[in-house]
Specification:
This protein is an all-alpha fold and 78 residues long. It has one domain. It contains five helices and no strands. Helix 1 packs across helix 2. The termini are far apart.
Length: 78
C-alpha cells in the first residue's frame, strides 16, 4: 500500500532534486523514495544513538592495559 506525502521544499532544492533524478533517469518521486530509504537504513537506531558506550564498542578499537597498547604501537613503528 502506498501513501501520499506532500513536502514543501525551496525552489533551489527542487532544481537539484530534478537534476539528480534526471542523471539517474528516474522520476523525482522515485529518487526521493530511494534517498529516504537509504538515509533511514544508515541512521542509527534510537537506542544506539543515545548510548555512547554502544557507539564506542561498535568501533572495535583495541582494548586493554594502556602500557601494553602503547608498547604494541611502538613495536609496530620499527
Amino acid at each position: 500500500m502506498s501513501y501520499r506525502l506532500q513536502v514543501l521544499i525551496p525552489a533551489e532544492l527542487d532544481v537539484r532534486l530534478r537534476k539528480a533524478a534526471q542523471r539517474r533517469r528516474i522520476s523525482k518521486g522515485e529518487y526521493v523514495r530511494r534517498v529516504l530509504e537509504e538515509s533511514l537504513r544508515k541512521a542509527p537506531s534510537d537506542e544506539g544513538a543515545l548510548d555512547p558506550l554502544a557507539q564506542l564498542s561498535s568501533l572495535r578499537a583495541p582494548i586493554g592495559d594502556i602500557e601494553q597498547i602503547l608498547s604494541e604501537i611502538e613495536s609496530g613503528r620499527s
